[in-house]
């Protein structure tokens, strides 16, 4: 009987092939490379989320990928409902909010904010105006219904979408990744 010995070279190619396959499976959102989420066919890119987290993180505490992704998923729907009901937010108001917050945070305002950062600020302003409206409860219900009816696909690296709460939950390590318990110094 002939013994077959695996050398480092074939094993290396097996590992590379397995990693490439895993990367392909984990790389995107429903076949949309680089997407953090896709909402009704509109892509929210990983880069959009990253830039918004970076820019907003300098201005606000507790800015994170999950919160920003959630807002970027909901913002177009919230803005559409608000606009249909005569509630609008101008670009100037949005930039003014960010510049004011920068001053309060003791940092220099940016010359230009990313569209995703502006979308998060627009969401905050629009949501505030909607809550002050006479028909705030009806508007809130309409927004929730439209978000529930939306086709939302989230890249698991950015969290898991909960249609009951309309929020993302933080991503967890896949079951196949071993996370050792913290060692206690003696």
From TrEMBL:
Transmembrane segments: none
Signal peptide per UniProt: 1-22
Keyword rRNA processing assigned: no
Species for this entry: Cellulomonas composti
Name used for this protein in its record: Lipoprotein
UniProt key word Zinc-finger: no
Record key words, sorted: Signal
